[in-house]
Amino acid sequence: MPPIHYGAVLIGDDGRIAEVGPAAQIRAPDGVPQEGFPDGILIPGLVNTHTHLELTGFDSAVPETDFPGWIRHLITLKAARSPDEMLEAARQGIRDCWAGGVTTVADTGDSAAALHAMRELGASGIAYQEIFGPDPGNFAERLSEFRTRFDALREGPADRVVIGVSPHAPYSVSGPLYRAVADWAWEEGLPLAVHIAESAEEEQLVRDGAGPFAEQWKGRGIPRLTSGGSTPIEWLERHGVLGERTLCIHAVRASELDVIRLVRTRSAVAHCPRSNLRHAGTPAPLAELLASGIRVGVGTDSVASVAPLDLLAEAREARRIGGLSATGAFDLVTRGAAAAIGLEREVGTLASGWWGDAVVITPRQGINGPNPLETVLGSRLAEVALTLVGGREVYRRPGK
Question: Which of 25, 160, 249, 342 has fewest C-beta within 10 Å?
Fold first, then answer.
């Protein structure tokens, strides 16, 4: 359902939507608390397909540099944070998402801080746990250690948080480890996310076994990657990583053949427009991905790349890049985003039976023309008035 001016939603005790539509058509049962926003537009809670919530607070700490250098600096910053600081950063990241109208996130991180924070605060989404290991000689040991940690994390409460796995990227994960993690994930029915086709340096490593990442490997005594000139996405397919439960993050340098590979394997893509432009200097082939029927959702990435987290700003940039209609752009942060992470029957739309995740936008300049969707897409963070997760108020703009 599109945004509704003067809309209403009735949410049951189970946190799911009972009725939704124009306010004049939805009657509140006796005894049910009511609240009105006469100047508001009702929209579904937004879905952010890629975050790093544990990096909250690094928005002014990571200098502009080449991509491998940026990665090294970020690793140094993360190493200086204590577990308690990581957890508080993730908590704040969730609150920032709610303040921006985002009710579901697909987060990746290696500290498990986001997973714990999501469970603690009653958030919604997927927490992909990252695994690293570029040396093919110790892949079995790395996977065994990771599975022990992962199994302990899985014992926590499920609620609305799904736990997934993320073999990080071709410059940080060996081919044997990719295959072993993918095989295990498919056996366990786990969602999988991977950073891929993100930079020229990554492509150089996979295609030629050369470049800055290769030099870093050499300095650590890691064998040179030999792949026969494949693209990063082809390399993933060779190692069994692509599939219906795989979310390919970025995919900036996806070739025409790579798009075919994604279609063939029914993989999805998390498109991060502003982060891609910062790090790669070029957008992903969004129009081609969508025209091919690939499930695509938009994400913000972390504040270390672009700050603040503003998913509607990402939707506006995706609209420009892909030449999309207002409906097409909005879909990338609602229904389409939910489909990309396998939650299309749970979130991303206002419909009976879906979770009662809803947002009220109160535009300062009023409705822009006859279509409230245009007004929503043009909204700024300060125009989010109220955010509900499962019918529970998680954000209210001061003064509202």
Answer: 25
Are the beta carbons of 54 and 92 closer than 8 angstroms?
no
Task: Encode 89-153 in three state secondary structure.
Answer: HHHHHHHHHHHCCEEEEEEEECCCHHHHHHHHHCCEEEEEEEECECCHHHHHHHHHHHHHHHHHH
Q: What is the DSSP letter of 69?
A: H
Average pLDDT, the chain: 93
Predicted confidence at residue 202, as pLDDT, reads 94
User: Does the CA dihedral 228-233-235-237 come out positive or negative?
Assistant: negative
- Concatenating the DSSP letter of every residue in 146-194 gives HHHHHHHHHTS--TTEEEEEEE--TTTB-HHHHHHHHHHHHHHT--EEE
Rounded to whole angstroms, the Cα distance separating 168 from 110 reads: 9
Q: How confident is the model at residue 64 (pLDDT cuts 50, 70, 90)?
A: low
Rg (CA), the chain: 21
For 392, phi then psi, to 5°, come to: -95, 130
